[in-house]
Amino acid sequence: MFRSVLRPLLSRPIDPQRSANRVSFCSRTAAMSLEDAKRCAAYKAVDEYVKDNTVVGVGSGSTVVYAVHRLAERVKAEGLKLVCVPTSFQARQLIIEHGLVLGDLECNPHLDCAIDGADEVDANMVLIKGGGGCLLQEKIVAACADRMVVIADYTKDSTKLGQQYRKGIPIEVAPMAYVPIRNKIEAQFGGSLKLRMAVAKAGPVVTDNGNFILDWSFVDEQAYDWDAVNRAIMMIPGVVDTGLFVGMATKAYFGQKDGTVTERSA
Fold it and tell me: Which of the following is catalytic: 120, 138, 172, 263?
């Protein structure tokens, strides 16, 4: 019954005006490091999307570190009045360490924009997120924002999901349900799911919300309608959320090896 959600990935034609990359220049350095590429993307996104007297969602991950650096620079140089809402413990600590105003969704349920990284972005602006285990809070914050802006380096830019990111799609689950959820997804959509294990402790990774994470290695050769797949997985009891972000991102910035920043709009 679930095979109806599978269809060719590119069955819907991509509008070239929507998906075409724009290129801007960040640095004249001939050979840039991956960290330089992340910084270029983060700085450009902050400069273009963050305005005075706004509430900004601050995502998680290594690229977001540069975005927070740039936010702090602009607050100091321009006197911007910002409230920053974190998506994780890491983001909260970054906001505090840089002297930015810390907010939450209880006092700031509406955000002007959310700036976050991604593990992979496909040609239709579908994202895989959750490699760092913060997918639930990242999705909640993004859903509260008028615009979700993705910052990443060139290794996160793909034509289709799985082309670059090989660790699978993270799925946050209630601990008691991880085995039946794993079995149901494998039976319905193929592939395999593994419980994410911790590195510096015995046992599985536990999210900020006290849940487990299953990483789904889907079938590469199979084309999926990710919106339909996401909806079907979300209906399985015990699934808290998925790392599939479908129809959420407004714009993506990819820092390149040569110092340029490639842009893709939804």
Answer: 138
Give me the phi and psi of 99, to 5 degrees please: 70, 20
Domain spans, the chain: 34-255
In a 3-state reduction of DSSP, which class is residue 99?
coil
CB 120 within 8 A of CB 227: no
Token match 């790392």: residue?
A: 243
Q: Alpha-carbon Rg of the chain, whole angstroms?
A: 18
- Whether 138 is a known active-site residue: answer yes
Instruction: Retrieve residue 162's tokens.
Output: 């799985």
Q: Please state which architecture CATH assigns to domain 34-255.
A: 3-Layer(aba) Sandwich (3.40)
- Other CB atoms within a 10 A radius of the CB of residue 142 amount to 26
Are 132 and 65 in contact, with CB atoms under 8 Å apart? no
Residue 142, both tokens: 């993004």
216 — phi, psi (to 5°)? -95, 110
pLDDT of residue 32: 76
Q: What is the mean pLDDT of the chain?
A: 91
Is the pTM higher than 0.85? The answer reads: yes
pLDDT digits (tens, 9 = 90+) for 138-182: 999 999 999 999 999 999 999 999 999 999 999 999 999 999 999
Residue 111 CA to residue 233 CA, distance in Å, equals 27
Q: Identify which has the larger pLDDT, 111 or 9.
A: 111
Alpha-carbon distance of 109 to 123, in angstroms, equals 30
Two structure tokens written together for 227: 């919106």
